[in-house]
């Protein structure tokens, strides 16, 4: 009986256990929350890079030429947000970058130090260069952040710190390439679905909503099956397509558990973010919110790495057990 028990793989961690282990990993390595704290402090108290009025005037002309835009996004609301948008927040690329509480608030008019200082860029060329530069730096920071979390979960942070600059840049290019690839697929599929629904809707008006819902569901499944691609790049040093292949294989076996993990992580992150973002940006209390948000966001991310690592361990042990049984 003892021999049989030794051969049986340890059952994989459940969703709640993965969440708990993620929080414990961050608690044991509190310095992991420094990247989101430093970025948010920069976005909050640092100078803001603003868009010149010449660009805003072009958007006004766009609204005049296309009045239908007013129905989807009111011009006044759009221009207000766009005029106060801080280009510096491009250091935290949307959806995949280092988590930012300040970026989620969109507008920071004042801080405890007074009115937010703004630096207006001169022209479209400067905007393009600065935004592109911020995004590239942002992807490098994101990769380093993910690598540090992966190292903490794997209990190998020293190895991550010793990695060369070239290795970090290589991983950053993979993350950037994966993001571009996924964005292109989503954009092409979305364009096709909207065009198809618009054409078909001329003959069958009620068909538009079901097509959009089906398309939205397909996008969610696309994101779900690629949910562990970044983890493969960070923990296994996989290339883009190997990481995608690994993620799809892992999700096929653990779809329900992974869905539960991501749903619980999303509820924790978004639910608590509402609390952290409640203080006004002109109060020092908002700084406490930044720290709390950084801890929760990092712990939730660490939980997904814990889940990934343990499921990969379980998968390898099951494959080894199957191979031994056949031999």
Give an account of the 3D structure.
Helix content is 73%, strand content 3%. With 327 residues, the chain is mainly alpha-helical. It has one domain (2-320). α2 packs across α13, α2 (15-28) crosses α14 and α4 (53-65) runs antiparallel to α6 (75-83). It is globular, with a radius of gyration of 23 Å.
Provide a concise account of the structure shown:
The chain has 327 residues and is mainly alpha-helical. It has one domain.
Strand order of the largest sheet: 1-4
Q: What is the 3D form? A: globular
Largest sheet: 2 strands, parallel
Class computed from helices, strands and strand pairing: mainly alpha
What helical percentage do the residues reach?
over 70%
Please provide the ordered H/E string of secondary-structure elements: HHHEHHHHEEEHHHHHHH
Strand proportion, as a percent range, falls in under 5%
Taking pLDDT < 50 over at least 5 consecutive residues as the criterion, the unreliable ranges are 1-5
What is the average per-residue confidence, as pLDDT, rounded to a whole number? 84
Number of strands: 4
- Indicate how many domains the architecture comprises: 1
- Total number of helices: 14
Cα-atom Rg, whole angstroms? 23 Å
Give the CA-CA distance, first to last residue.
20 Å
């Amino acid at each position: 009986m003892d021999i049989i028990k030794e051969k049986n793989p340890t059952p994989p961690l459940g969703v709640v256990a993965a969440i708990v282990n993620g929080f414990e990993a961050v608690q044991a390595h509190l310095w992991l929350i420094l990247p989101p704290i430093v970025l948010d402090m920069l976005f909050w108290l640092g100078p803001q890079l603003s868009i010149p009025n010449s660009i805003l005037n072009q958007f006004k002309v766009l609204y005049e030429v296309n009045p239908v835009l007013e129905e989807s996004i009111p011009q006044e609301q759009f221009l207000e947000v766009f005029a106060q948008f801080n280009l510096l927040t491009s250091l935290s690329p949307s959806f995949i970058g280092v988590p930012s509480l300040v970026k989620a608030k969109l507008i920071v008019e004042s801080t405890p130090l007074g009115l937010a200082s703004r630096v207006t860029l001169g022209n479209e060329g400067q905007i393009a260069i600065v935004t592109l530069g911020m995004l590239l730096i942002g992807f490098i920071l994101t990769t380093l952040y993910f690598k540090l979390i992966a190292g903490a979960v794997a209990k190998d942070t020293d190895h991550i710190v010793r990695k060369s600059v070239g290795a970090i840049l290589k991983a950053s290019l993979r993350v950037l390439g994966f993001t571009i690839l996924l964005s292109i697929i989503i954009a092409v599929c979305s364009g096709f679905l909207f065009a198809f629904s618009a054409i078909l809707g001329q003959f069958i008006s009620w068909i538009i909503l079901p097509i959009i819902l089906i398309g939205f569901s397909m996008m969610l499944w696309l994101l779900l099956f690629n949910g562990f691609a970044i983890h493969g790049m960070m923990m296994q040093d996989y290339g883009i397509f190997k990481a995608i292949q690994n993620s799809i294989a892992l999700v096929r076996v653990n779809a329900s558990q992974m869905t539960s993990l991501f749903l619980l992580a999303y509820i924790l992150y978004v639910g608590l973010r509402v609390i952290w973002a409640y203080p006004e940006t002109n109060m020092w209390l908002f700084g406490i919110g930044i720290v709390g948000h950084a801890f929760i966001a990092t712990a939730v991310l660490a939980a997904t790495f814990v889940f990934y690592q343990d499921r990969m361990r379980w998968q390898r042990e099951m494959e080894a057990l199957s191979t031994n049984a056949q031999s």
